[in-house]
């Protein structure tokens, strides 16, 4: 039995929660972003994500001990009468999708994913399944991202022009995933990089797992002079102390950059559509490749359900306290 209760997914046959926001005895954590990763007695995840979670829990001063049940990509294990497999989601380093197989078929939970290329995380995979539970953050036709080369060029051009004009280029990017991807893009172009301490901490985890990043400096208000690109978490709304009396230009890195109002909403000079989620076309492509008989949706626009139904896809948006018998 599969259910959605208290904004958390639960598989009763496995006594396993999925990306729960409340502490649980045993929970599968797809990746390390704070809207998916919480502390539980036992966390089922990949080795790379276990390292990321440990780092993030420690940084916020957690004293709760978590036991990590680590499984490598594409190495199935048995859990009662079912076989479970983690495989790459392409979202951030260590992010995984979950495949559950049993007598009644194959179920896949994608969590957050993208199909576009990345320099800093594992290439995504799509596996055939009978039931697919997928996120649909960008489930509207207007959310089709530009080609990746154009996005990279936009980052490099913004930084280059700002530096030539004597302005510090500041990129607002989540400290896990998008920040490291921005580092790789800017570093490839030879642009010097300085990063917020939270970004630095995650970058160290990336490097410890074998991801190659370009040279970068850890931000220090006493020494930062605005002559390098600064990568700053968007949650840190306070202007960097070193830039309070210096000219700067800001760019938000987000898939929501496709909204014309995005620069005003975020209070930045520009927005660049560097995203770690699948766009509308990728959502449709995933379904085409996986060939599920049933699609369940969460974490996104409900009207994506109606678009899929018009295409002949049996789709349902998960509602709170809904119970579905798939296992």
Largest sheet composition? 7 strands, mixed
Number of DSSP helical runs: 7
- CATH homologous superfamily title of the largest domain: Ribonuclease Z/Hydroxyacylglutathione hydrolase-like
Distance between the termini: 6 Å
Show unreliable segments. Answer: none
CATH architecture of the largest domain: 4-Layer Sandwich
* Highest-level CATH class of the largest domain: Alpha Beta
Compute the gyration radius: what is it? 20 Å
- What oligomeric state best describes the polypeptide chains here? single chain
What does this structure look like?
The protein is α/β, with parallel strands linked by helices. It starts with a strand and ends with a strand. Strand 13, helix 4 and strand 14 (217-218) form a beta-alpha-beta unit. The model has no long low-confidence stretch (mean pLDDT 92). Strands 6-5-4-3-2-1-20 form a 7-stranded mixed β-sheet. A 7-stranded mixed β-sheet has the order 7-8-9-10-11-18-19, with helices on one face. A 6-stranded parallel β-sheet has the order 14-13-15-12-16-17. It folds into 2 domains: 2-142 and 277-324, Ribonuclease Z/Hydroxyacylglutathione hydrolase-like (Metallo-beta-lactamase, Chain A), CATH 3.60.15.10; 148-272, Rossmann fold. It has 7 helices and 20 strands.
């Amino acid at each position: 039995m599969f259910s959605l209760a208290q904004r958390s997914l639960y598989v009763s046959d496995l006594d396993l929660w999925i990306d729960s926001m409340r502490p649980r005895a045993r929970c599968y954590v797809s990746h390390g972003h704070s809207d998916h990763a919480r502390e539980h007695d036992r966390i089922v995840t990949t080795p790379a994500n276990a390292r990321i979670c440990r780092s993030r829990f420690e940084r916020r001063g957690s004293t709760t001990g978590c036991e990590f049940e680590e499984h490598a990509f594409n190495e199935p294990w048995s859990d009662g009468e079912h076989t479970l497999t983690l495989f790459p989601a392409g979202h951030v380093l260590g992010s995984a999708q979950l495949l559950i197989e049993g007598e009644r078929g194959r179920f896949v939970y994608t969590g957050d994913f993208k199909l576009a290329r990345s320099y800093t995380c594992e290439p995504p995979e799509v596996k055939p399944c009978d039931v697919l539970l997928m996120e649909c953050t960008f489930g509207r036709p207007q959310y089709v991202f530009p080609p990746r080369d154009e996005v990279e060029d936009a980052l490099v051009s913004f930084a280059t022009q700002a530096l030539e004009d004597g302005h510090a280029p500041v990129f607002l990017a989540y400290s896990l995933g998008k920040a490291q991807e921005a580092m790789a893009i800017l570093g490839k172009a030879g642009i010097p990089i300085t990063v917020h301490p939270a970004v630095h901490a995650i970058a160290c985890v990336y490097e410890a797992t074998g991801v190659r990043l370009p040279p970068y400096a850890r931000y220090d208000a006493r020494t930062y002079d605005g002559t390098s690109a600064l990568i700053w978490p968007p949650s840190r709304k306070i202007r960097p102390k070193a830039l309070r009396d210096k000219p700067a230009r800001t760019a938000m890195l987000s898939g929501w950059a496709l909204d014309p109002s995005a620069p005003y909403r975020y209070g930045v000079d520009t927005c660049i559509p560097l995203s770690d989620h699948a766009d509308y076309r990728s959502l449709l492509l995933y379904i085409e490749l996986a060939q599920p008989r049933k699609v369940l949706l969460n974490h996104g626009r409900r009207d994506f359900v109606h678009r899929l139904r018009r295409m002949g896809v049996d789709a349902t948006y998960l509602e709170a306290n809904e119970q579905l018998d798939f296992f």
